[in-house]
Amino acid sequence: MSEEQIKNLEEQFEERIARDEKIEPKDWMPEKYRQTHIRQISQHAHSEIVGMLPEGNWITRAPSLRRKVALLAKVQDEAGHGLYLYSACETLGISRDELYEQLHSGKAKYSSIFNYPTVTWADMGAIGWLVDGAAIINQVPLCSTSFGPYARAMVRVCKEESFHQRQGYEIMLKLCNGTPEQKEMAQDALNRWWWPSLMMLGPTDDMSVHTEQSMKWKLKRKTNDELRQQFIDQTVPQADILGLTIPDPDLKWNEERQSYDFGEIDWDEFWQVVKGHGPMNKARMKARVGAWERGEWVRDAAMAHAEKQQERKNKQVV
Amino acid sequence: MKNKNLYNYILGIADNSLILGQRLGELCGHGPSLETDIACTNMSLDLLGQVRSYYQYAAKIAGDGRTEDDIAMLRKEREYFNVLLVEQPNTDFGYTMARQFLFDVYHFLMLTELEKSTDLNLSAIAKKSIKEVSYHKRFSSDWIKRLGDGTEESHSRIQTAINDLWTYTDELFHQTEADKAMVAEGVGVDVTKLKDAYYEEVNAVLEEATLSVPESKYFQKGGKQGIHTEHMGYLLADLQYMQRTYPNMEW
Q1: Which of A76, A179, B28, B206 is the most buried (most CB within 10 A)?
Q2: Domain coordinates of chain B in residue numbers?
Q3: CATH: 1.10.1740.10, 3.40.1440.10, 3.40.50.150, 1.20.1260.10. Which one for B4-245?
Q4: In this complex, which of A52, A60, A308 lies closest to B22 when CB atoms are compared?
Q5: Could you tell me which of A49, A117, A61 has the C-alpha nearest to residue A85?
Q6: Where in chain A does DSSP place strands (E)?
Q7: What is residue A147's three-state secondary structure?
Q8: InterPro entries, alphabetically (chain A) (predicted)?
């Protein structure tokens, strides 16, 4: 293909996106579009899978049968999200095994929030309320992103995430209406998850490397700072209802902006965790790689059995 | 308690599902593939759902203000009546599937009979559960066949797991005092009558999986009397952690 032809295709492609048409896997797409989507969708899928670990940590210790069942179902939903996000990613011409390999080698990233430990039951509430809350803010705009399989997957993901968020908030509410000890547990969880949740919405706009291109392809509709502001404005009144204090002395309603002003985020901590030195980075990777390696003989067996079955079938046909 | 036998009988059934559900719950996020991970979580969810129905019913019978969670999480180890099989650890995926399979075949046969119980509550729980357990049995049987007929390594691993867990199968068919009383009333299932059908079905799957049926005639028992293996205490430490650390709170 000549350079001119490619340029032509690219122009048509950008026009289709501008018209809000969906791009489907078999359509022509610029290589950069493909790579960017593989990166983002797989990063999202990895986050779901690694995100199972901090909450999985409390399944055996959930305080009641009802909570145990709800938590199991939630973590299972995350596995389901991982499954269809990996499938959406595979339509771009990469296999799930290759994607795992990228995760395990550290080449692919996942959401840094999961590199924090879950140390009390209240963390199950805080994660649902704050982490899933921030995730929804990130993800709702993706329901109308340009790449069809991703957009469709996100519609389902968002529905379930919104259920998870309510479930998390309900855990917090129960704690806050409980004994002083329970309320203290809830406050402690908020203290530990608040700032990492704000960081979850990504570096500030001047530091963000992917924003401009992503806006054009509708992988992003708002900037990180806009999303963060939206999250804070939405969450502060919820904390008020719980009777909990947001751990930010600089948090203040700004009458003029009709928005909350807030304190400085510790970006050194953010980059430390992103670069692999958060409290749980190594443990999370060890758990993922360990599960994968321990499962190898099982996957091999399933393949071998399927091949034998096929051979038997072929023989019968002959 | 007026209905002590019925209460104990329900616990005998429910504790199996609770402990197995707890074991499966440990695996969530650590499976050999996403698909098996989801399936094991699903079985855990089914079992714990059944547990809730049984314990809610047991709590009503006990009538002393205890809730399903008190019954699930605040008994002493000696007061849990599950069979030893279900408390065995998730040594590897082979052990997990072998434990599941050896229990599922029994569970399905038992529920089929329990559905005929004159106790309408138990009959209704059985009716609902049997659909779920029929899926569990298909899943675990398929994996026994896959692993047995897969690679040399998988064959050897699943054979080892079956051999090791075999010693816990006989206990499934022991009758407790509560069993006997409930059978006499038409409420309970006579588990002794399930034994032949059980081994027939298990052996058939093992054969199809190219595995050998263990020949050992030495069996372990005790779970139904609350005498457990050394694994049980640690499992309960996890299960009971919150209720023991923060007594009398609602979650």
Answers
A1: B28
A2: 4-245
A3: 1.20.1260.10
A4: A60
A5: A49
A6: 252-254, 259-261
A7: strand
A8: Aromatic_CoA_ox/epox, Ferritin-like, Ferritin-like_SF, PaaA, PaaA_PaaC
Q: What is the C-alpha to C-alpha distance for residues A169 and A11, in angstroms, rounded to an integer?
A: 46
Mutate to test the interface with B, among A68, A127, A172 (most CBs of B within 10 A): A68
Residues 6+ apart with CB under 8 A from B29: A49, A52, A53, A56, A75, A79, A287, A291, B37
State residue B87's pLDDT score.
Answer: 98
**Cα–Cα distance list, A189 to A169, A242, A293 (Å):** 12, 13, 33
Which candidate from B146, B242, B250 shows the least CB-CB separation from A301? B146
A158-181 pLDDT, tens digit each: 999 999 999 999 999 999 999 999
Residue type, position A160, single letter: E
Q: Which of B20, B24, B34 to mutate to test the interface with A (most CBs of A within 10 A)?
A: B34
Cβ–Cβ < 8 Å for A62, B28 = no
Give residue A68's Cα distance to chain centre: 22
Q: What angle separates helix B4-26 from helix B177-184, to the nearest 10 degrees?
A: 120
pLDDT score recorded for residue A31: 95
Q: Which amino acid is at B176?
A: T
Segment A279-313, tens digit of pLDDT: 999 999 999 999 999 999 999 999 999 999 999 99
* A6 touching B (Cβ < 8 Å): no
Give the ipTM: 0.97
The number of angstroms, rounded, from the C-alpha of B246 to the middle of its chain's C-alpha atoms is 28
Q: What are the helix (H) ranges across chain B? A: 4-26, 34-62, 68-73, 84-87, 93-114, 120-148, 152-166, 177-184, 195-208, 231-245
Q: What is the mean pLDDT of each run of 10 residues along chain B (251 residues)?
A: 94 98 97 96 98 98 96 98 98 98 98 98 98 98 98 98 98 98 98 98 98 96 98 98 97 96
8 Å CB contact between A243 and A237: no
> Tell me: the pLDDT tens digits for B205-221?
999 999 999 999 899 99
